[in-house]
Write a structure and sequence with these properties.
single chain, about 180 residues, alpha+beta, Beta-clip-like, three-stranded antiparallel sheet, about 20% helix, binds zinc ion
């Protein structure tokens, strides 16, 4: 028998024979540190099959909600991807960021040059995070009719290609693969 096993079983028996005492218990393992995003954002189901991401605290304009990277990259867009370059569509890491819905008057933006989500106007605790999808999406796989409720709502969202330069001008963090073709489109 290996000596290590013998030593372990003696130790366990000795421990079991000792009287139970709250101060005698082995220390509990330290809980895993929460992911930083879990302290800032919560995802809720707001309708069947429809999730949304909400602020757990207030944010000032210019704050960084989260850095992001790619769990996987696809050559074509889907409803879950963010476009970071021509022919490059990433599945977001951390994954909950994909629950940020489109808004025509957004409060966050995906900065695909620095790979981080930036707060573009002050956000109250409990407010839903919204990003303007055409800032990264040139031509969307699944166009949709927006119901964001903003007076600035553009209604039909299909990507930057169909919106044109006027609707895109002045928007923060428009991705280079969107702004460059808009100039000649
Ligand atoms: Zn809208």
């Amino acid at each position: 028998m290996p000596r290590t096993n013998a030593a372990r079983s003696v130790s366990a028996a000795t421990y079991a024979a000792r009287p139970a005492s709250p101060t005698d218990e082995p220390p509990a393992p330290a809980p895993a540190a929460p992911h930083p995003l879990d302290l800032r954002m919560v995802v809720r189901t707001v309708a069947p099959g429809m999730r949304a991401a909400f602020a757990l605290k207030p944010f000032r304009k210019g704050a960084i909600l989260s850095p992001f990277g790619a769990r996987r990259t696809d050559p074509a867009p889907s409803r879950y991807t963010i476009q970071t370059a021509p022919g490059r569509h990433i599945h977001l890491d951390p994954q909950p960021l994909e629950c940020i819905n489109h808004g025509c008057d957004p409060n966050v933006a995906f900065d695909v040059e620095r790979m981080r989500v930036v707060v573009v106007r002050a956000i109250r605790a409990g407010e839903e995070f919204r990003a303007f999808y055409p800032s990264t999406e040139w031509a969307m796989d699944e166009p949709f009719d927006c119901a964001c409720g903003s007076p600035k709502c553009l209604r039909r969202i299909t990507g930057a290609r169909d919106l044109g330069a006027a609707a895109m001008s002045g928007r923060p963090f428009v991705a280079p693969h969107v702004s460059a073709p808009l100039r000649t489109h």
